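WARN retry 2 of 3 for item q-0093 after timeout on previous attempt; input resubmitted unchanged.
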Amino acid sequence: MRIYTTDDPFGRVNPDFDALRSRAALWEASNAIDQVLVGYSSIWPHNFATASYLLALTRRLGLIVAHRPGVMDPAAAARFFRTLDELSGGERLTVNIVSGSSDKDVHREGDYSDKATRYERAGEYVTVMNRCWSEPKAFDHQGTFYRLESVRQTVRPVRGHIPILMGGDSDGAIEFGARYADMYMLWGEPLKGTKERIDRVKAAAQAHGRSPEFSLSLRVFLGDTDEDAWAQAYAVRDAILAAQGTNRFLRSSATDTSVGRSRQLSLTNEEIHDDCFWSELVKLLGGFANSAALVGTRDRVMQSLKNYRDLGISAFLLTTGPDGFWEPSLEDFALQVKKEL
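OK item q-0093 returned
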């Protein structure tokens, strides 16, 4: 079992690059974290720069670097990622393709393609990147979205391929993931919904002779007793409620009509699902990613994670607290997850 996490190393609202250095040291010292997701938004500091810096600051830590097709040419992106892979020593870099995003955010970067088109374009984008990473001789490409001539790149990824991760719940996302993803990233859902999504992606992937892995993103609130865990969870709920009307916590925009967001919000008809799956933060944050939570004792939460493992989950992206980031308090539990699962 692999453990991923995500964080806010530079401050999304007020960039803090001293924090970037301190968080890098924290992640590097962790024996539980395999990779940290470095997210992408048109309004944040550019993650090409922050990811490069994080890899330079560390020697072991792996990164999942989110990348939006359409903001640059795929051959240029392939050259960047393979160079970063080589400079970091190999086996530390994964690319998270983010095609869905909110229309508002992609419009900020001059992209007015609809979501279905963005997924179709992403498929061609990844095809070109894979050719750049694997073909020893110059090649031409003539596609729907890109035309390239005499493409030849001299450095190959250390592993021969840089893994591709993605997520999403629309038909376009499912088809893209089935064809191109090495791992399909799922937002937290109750067991029934998680099984439905895994089965759907597996069926689509099998049609292409592929079998991607699956990760699941969850916040966890752990206590020595269930009452202690719920006290922590409710304290986070109250902090988010108190900050309504400010930009203290990231929320999904009301204009975000993504299938994934709608699916997340549909969970909020019930506050608690299964044994300890809690949906109230999903409601408060407007369906924002990784706001679904497990609440309880370590044994109770561990059993829930085992149930997800049995459905086919091979990596968990774990966070906690009001912001949904990594905290050192997760270290021992995450190590236990890696050992037992």
